[in-house]
Amino acid sequence: MSLTIIDLYGEDATKEKIFETIQMHHPQRAIMAGHGNATTYTSQREEVVLKACENDEVMSGTLSHFISCSVGQQLLPSIIKKGGVGTVGYMVDFTFMVNTDYSVEEDPYAEPFKDVTVTIITKMLQGATLQQVWQAGVDKCNEWIKKLRDKPEIDWAEVISCLEHDRDGLVAFGDKSARVLGGTVMFVRPDWGEVAMQYASYWSGVAIEAAVIPRPRLVSLPPLFWLATLFLFLTGRKLSV
Amino acid sequence: MSVISFEQAKELTLARLRQWLEELPEAERRRPRKILDFKAYSVLDLVREVEMETEVGKTIIYDEMKRLNYVVE
Q1: Average pLDDT of B48-52?
Q2: B20, B33, B35: which to substitute to probe chain A, counting the most A Cβ within 10 Å?
Q3: B38–A69 CB contact, under 8 Å
Q4: Angle of helix A111-125 relative to helix A195-212, nearest 10 degrees?
Q5: What is the 3-state secondary structure (H, E, C) of A62-86?
């Protein structure tokens, strides 16, 4: 299945371009980073893009993930009421830790949150069901919490606290068995130099890179190749006995 | 889970944040450390938010009590 990615990054992450992309390309999946609250999702420079019960019908027919605070309270349920297939996001303020001694790419405190976000997006891009996408996010949080539990520094205790906060606030609405393969995916990645948004946009970018780098397609080799390999393997074992 | 008053919860949270401050070198205390609602806060900012009982401060208090298995009454 071919995958087309439309990446609205930085100054391209405007309401106008988002709506234009939706109308012209009809993306089946959308990954939306940006500030948010219970009823509102915003993009570049906090421009209001979606408001519950006002214009959220544009998201109908999509499977989406919002890296945005508190939208799970009203906006996401409203999107589903207006025909959204499924959506994953946060019921609470999305919280994470940073250490500005490091670059955004190498920040160890932000690493668990990057991993959780990339896991959720990657699962969605791989065609997992909504339930599996949500579960993968929760499992990844738990994996990191377990991994960091023995670290004595308060910084790491805070990382754990943030992971628990986000995990408990991660929600999914819509058809839990919904999945999409191939088609068009729209990424919205605002970035205007604000520390927090740089991280969220970078994480989404990592997921894009993972999606576009071709993986070895072993399964597409002819069956004869596999039969020959199996034959050689078995013969080799017999000879060595 | 034990029940705790909001005032006690606030004091516990402040005590932990001050302990965190002590662990950090002077220069680190004013630098962004925690992102809440996509806004960056230093540990000193967090202390101020809790002291002033802002919405962010209250979130920090409730999260901390949840972590410690307390219910704030």
Answers
A1: 97
A2: B35
A3: yes
A4: 40
A5: CEEEEECCCCCCCHHHHHHHCCCCE
Percent share of chain A, pLDDT over 70: 91
Contact B35 A195 (CB under 8 A): yes
**8 A C-beta contact, residue A166 and residue A94:** yes
Q: How far is A127 from chain B (nearest CA, A)?
A: 28
- The DSSP code sequence of A180-209 is --SEEEEEEE--SS-HHHHHHHHHHHHHHH
Collapsing DSSP to helix, strand or coil, A155 comes out as: helix
Q: Is A66 in the B-facing interface, judged by CB distances under 8 Å?
A: no
With beta carbons under 8 A apart, name residues in chain B contacting A164: 63, 66-67
Q: How do residues A98-147 score in pLDDT, each as one tens digit?
A: 998 999 999 999 999 999 999 999 999 999 999 999 999 999 999 999 99
